[in-house]
């Protein structure tokens, strides 16, 4: 399955359901040049995610961390963790991702398997992700198993669902054996930056078309302007203003492809006061002018 955009609600939670109620697992082949933005925007979801780089390097942003994955390397992204993934230097890069609910291998939420082996990881406050490298033996074993799950999902031979579930159970067992001593379930988060940034991002997404400023963004997160800037830089590596501009351009790109409204009107609709400045900012993020973008991608 190939996605072309990430749909999120006001809280940045992804709205797409991964898998089904009777088999809560979804596998995606992510070709970055097919995404509207050219990358996977900030979002989070309840499901645990394993991603594996197939071609060229990708950069995984997890709150205030940047993790570079070379081909053949992977990552586990924990439940409810805010993340974003971009090409490192080549828009043609490709990876596959497995998103699954813990009940797939744990059964009911009150089961022994869930409580003893899954919850210690999923409910950990200080475990956001685990990098999977080829030069670490136990991590390499997990990468080999992930590749098998990917192959099974494409071949779809009889019984492939059972085999995928078995591989994921083995992967999880490898994981919990290696990190069980490092997990401290009761340790509180040292910083509220991630929640503050989520609140600020929600405000921007609700008011991007208005004449908003740093004071308004900071007020929405109940913090000072300087604290707002610091939190954005730590978590997202951009300023609040840069995030606002990027989001406005993203919404403008959607409108350019949805209708034939004038570029001037679209610039006003997404919060820009002048078409010249809009064109300059749009080109910064999309490497082409609004009209060039429309001519290249518009489907009548």
Automatic annotation (TrEMBL):
InterPro entries, alphabetized: AraC-bd, Homeodomain-like_sf, HTH_AraC, HTH_AraC-typ_CS, RmlC-like_jellyroll, RmlC_Cupin_sf, Tscrpt_reg_AraC-type_HTH
Q: Which residues form a coiled coil?
A: none
What is a single molecular function from GO for this protein?
Answer: DNA-binding transcription factor activity
Any idea where the HTH araC/xylS-type domain is?
Answer: 198-296
* Keywords assigned: DNA-binding, Transcription, Transcription regulation
Q: Which Gene3D superfamilies match?
A: Homeodomain-like, Jelly Rolls
Q: What is this protein called?
A: AraC family transcriptional regulator
Source organism of this protein record: Clostridium beijerinckii (Clostridium MP)
């Amino acid at each position: 399955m190939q996605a072309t955009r990430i749909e999120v609600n006001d809280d940045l939670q992804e709205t797409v359901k991964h898998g089904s109620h009777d088999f809560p697992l979804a596998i995606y082949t992510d070709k970055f040049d097919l995404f509207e933005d050219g990358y996977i925007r900030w979002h989070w979801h309840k499901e645990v995610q394993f991603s594996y780089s197939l071609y060229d390097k990708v950069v995984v942003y997890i709150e205030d961390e940047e993790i570079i994955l070379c081909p053949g390397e992977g990552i586990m992204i924990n439940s409810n963790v805010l993340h974003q993934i971009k090409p490192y230097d080549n828009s043609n890069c490709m990876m596959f991702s497995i998103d699954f609910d813990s009940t797939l291998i744990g059964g009911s939420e009150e089961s022994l398997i869930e409580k003893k082996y899954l919850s210690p990881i999923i409910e950990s406050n200080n475990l956001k992700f685990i990098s999977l490298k080829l030069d670490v033996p136990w991590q390499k074993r997990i990468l080999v198993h992930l590749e098998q799950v990917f192959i099974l999902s494409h071949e779809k031979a009889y019984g492939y669902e059972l085999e995928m579930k078995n591989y994921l159970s083995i992967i999880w067992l490898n994981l919990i054996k290696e990190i069980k001593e490092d997990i401290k379930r009761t340790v509180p988060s040292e910083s509220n930056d991630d929640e503050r940034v989520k609140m600020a991002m929600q405000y921007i997404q609700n008011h991007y078309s208005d004449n908003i400023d740093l004071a308004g963004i900071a007020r929405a997160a109940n913090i000072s302007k300087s604290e707002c800037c610091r939190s954005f830089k730590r978590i997202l590596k951009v300023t609040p203003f840069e995030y606002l501009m990027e989001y406005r351009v993203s919404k403008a790109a959607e409108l350019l492809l949805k209708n034939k409204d004038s570029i001037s009107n679209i610039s006003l609709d997404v919060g820009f006061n002048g078409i010249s400045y809009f064109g300059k900012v749009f080109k910064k993020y999309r490497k082409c002018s609004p009209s060039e973008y429309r001519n290249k991608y518009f489907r009548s």
